[in-house]
Amino acid sequence: MVAEPKKWVQDFQKAGCDLYTFHYEAAFSTASTAPSESSEAKTSPAELISYIHSTGMLAGIALKPATPVDVLWPLLSAADADEKPDMVLIMTVEPGFGGQKFMSSELPKVKALREKYPELDIEVDGGLAEGTVDQAAEAGANVIVAGSAVFGASDPKQVIGKLREAVEKRKR
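Now predict its structure.
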């Protein structure tokens, strides 16, 4: 998780990024728009999403396990399309390091998002592997992040294929 996510938007855009995802919890930080700047002014998730969109990138928003999904309802139903996230990422581990155990307790968030927003890209990150991806896909995730499962595999291509297959067979 990046602290002060607004400071890094321009650098990511200049590096060729087309989707910038930030943690909801980190969005209530400085309104500075460059790492070398400081500001007492604060930003909000809606302002940060709008700022990301103004750079030509898509905006994603991530939720840590302790954050309830309903904090996203105002953003996802915003009247101003520039303030709506293009993707939601549900963390199924605490952010910080790879190899953690999948937290199935976070899947109700995925399911609630899928029921309310059937066209939304919903990403799940944390502890995903061949043994857990079916649960995430069944709940409604259509974007999967699997670091340790892929990079620790003897056959990464085979693992990626299984993960992709789990999501593809559940597309609504």
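The chain has a mean pLDDT of 92.
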